[in-house]
Structure to design on (523 residues):
């Protein structure tokens, strides 16, 4: 009996301590300068109901789009920011479009993108935190890959063609139903790794499977970790992310011998000029560091796997959305006919060879993809930055944002604003190509680049904007344009019924993995 009383006393004391701690935390945070800032802001999603703030955070899991459109229509258009609740996280301050230029003009020591990426991907637990500290492999993409795109066009097209034959497996002339997202990701993974990893690894299905599953795991596990209370993350984080390490180890088993051979060649003074791929560029950059740890094959492989993660999933989502938007449109036949005419004409004018010049001239193909990005953007909000200036930042018109607050832009509202786009709720495949096909008096195109997919602006923000715009968008654009051109020239595609709905989850918009299309060889 005495033991039971003692146990009850301990439990009661523990519960009392937790209550006191919770109340203390509430009092401290509610009195902080940041808390006072949030109380002064205009919020969305907080309906007249009990525990409105709690339910608004819960609603943000799947209702972010509706909240953003509400805030954009009521507040953004008047030049006022609004606050977006976040599940188990600090809220976001969404800035009006008029303040985007002021935001991106701020120096990196006042607003920070890297901190946001680390939080989003939970790099402390999903692995490779050391790579997040020094991601020089991304600089390789920014400088080497973009510059050498003309050398990549033919081999990427070659790998895409082989990928379609392998994934869509069409026999005869009949219709076949395929999983859109799954097959797009498999095809893109193969083609991208021709450039990232070289011919040998890009055709190793086991390597591709593990790089792909690693990326799936990082995004999935990061989402789970970010929904956990902060105090639980050190305990559960390693358990949630356990499978990530197994995929990396399998990739290392396959790739390390190839990496070791290339490293040894460089040590022997043999330049790997025959290897025009990111793996070779990363190895060469590692040599310049004069740090033996950077030449460890396992670490180089981790950089390679990380490149796959940031490149393949976003491209696959974009390509899936493009197919769903294009072939579910009431004007699908008209659009596809126009795309086929363009590809045939441009190829014929360039001798039938797939070159960078051919890809650049496919303005309708470019437009069809860009329009899908506008309509079905992966991010409902974007340009997210953490304010790191201890004094906060001033954005003009009385908008002062204190240190520690995350700010972002309401992409979903901007991309559907009638002031930016005529009939914004309609998918118009040639919206961005019409002006690029207008000729001047000398027969030259008047507006060749301004509407291109890689061009960011205040009204097109999926790739970011300013100095931190996505550096991989040039390669991704070429890959997607080659892919769509091959599809329209080689296949007939249809969707039964209406377009499968995308899933909105925590501010991201992704195609349903159950979405399917029907394909056959072009008749």
């Amino acid at each position: 009996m005495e033991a039971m009383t003692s146990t009850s006393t301990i439990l009661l004391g523990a519960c009392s301590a937790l209550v006191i701690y919770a109340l203390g935390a509430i009092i401290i945070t509610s009195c902080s300068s940041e808390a006072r800032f949030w109380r002064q802001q205009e919020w969305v999603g907080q309906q007249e109901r009990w525990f409105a703030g709690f339910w608004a955070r819960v609603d943000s899991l799947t209702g972010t789009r509706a909240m953003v459109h509400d805030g954009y229509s009521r507040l953004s258009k008047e030049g006022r920011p609004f606050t977006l609740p976040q599940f188990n996280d600090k809220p976001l301050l969404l800035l009006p479009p008029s303040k985007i230029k002021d935001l991106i003009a701020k120096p990196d020591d006042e607003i920070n993108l890297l901190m946001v990426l680390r939080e989003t991907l939970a790099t402390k637990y999903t692995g490779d935190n050391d790579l997040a500290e020094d991601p020089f492999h991304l600089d390789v993409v920014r400088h080497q890959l973009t510059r050498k795109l003309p050398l990549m066009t033919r081999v990427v097209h070659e790998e895409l063609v082989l990928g379609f034959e392998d994934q869509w497996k069409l026999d005869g002339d009949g219709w076949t139903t395929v999983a859109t997202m799954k097959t797009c990701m498999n095809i893109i993974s193969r083609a991208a790794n021709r450039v990232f990893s070289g011919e040998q690894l890009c055709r190793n299905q086991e390597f591709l499977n593990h790089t792909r599953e690693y990326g799936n795991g990082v995004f999935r596990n990061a989402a789970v970790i970010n929904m956990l209370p902060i105090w639980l993350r050190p305990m559960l984080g390693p358990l949630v992310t356990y499978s990530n390490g197994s995929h990396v180890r399998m990739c290392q088993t396959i790739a390390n011998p190839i990496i070791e051979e290339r490293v040894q060649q460089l040590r022997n003074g043999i330049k790997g000029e025959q290897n025009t791929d990111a793996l070779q560029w990363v190895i060469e950059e590692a040599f310049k560091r004069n740090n033996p740890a950077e030449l460890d094959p396992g670490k180089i492989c981790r950089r390679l796997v990380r490149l796959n993660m940031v490149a393949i999933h976003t491209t696959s989502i974009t390509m899936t959305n493009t197919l769903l938007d294009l072939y579910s449109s009431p004007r699908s036949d008209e659009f596809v006919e126009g795309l086929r005419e363009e590809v045939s004409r441009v190829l014929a004018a360039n001798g039938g060879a797939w070159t960078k010049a051919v890809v650049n001239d496919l303005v309708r193909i470019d437009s069809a993809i860009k329009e899908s990005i506008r309509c079905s953007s992966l991010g409902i909000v974007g340009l997210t930055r953490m304010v790191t200036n201890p004094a906060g930042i001033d954005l003009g018109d009385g908008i002062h944002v204190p240190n520690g607050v995350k700010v972002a832009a309401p992409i979903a509202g901007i991309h559907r604003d009638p002031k930016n786009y005529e009939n914004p709720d309609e998918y118009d495949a040639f919206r961005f190509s019409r002006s690029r096909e207008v000729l001047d008096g000398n027969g030259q195109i008047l507006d060749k680049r301004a509407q291109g997919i890689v061009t960011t602006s205040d009204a097109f923000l999926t790739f970011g904007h300013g100095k931190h715009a996505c550096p991989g968008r040039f390669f991704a654009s070429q890959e997607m344009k080659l892919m769509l051109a091959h599809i329209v020239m080689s296949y007939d595609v249809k969707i039964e019924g209406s377009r499968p709905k995308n899933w909105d989850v925590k501010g991201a918009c992704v195609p349903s993995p159950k979405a399917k299309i029907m394909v056959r060889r072009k008749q």
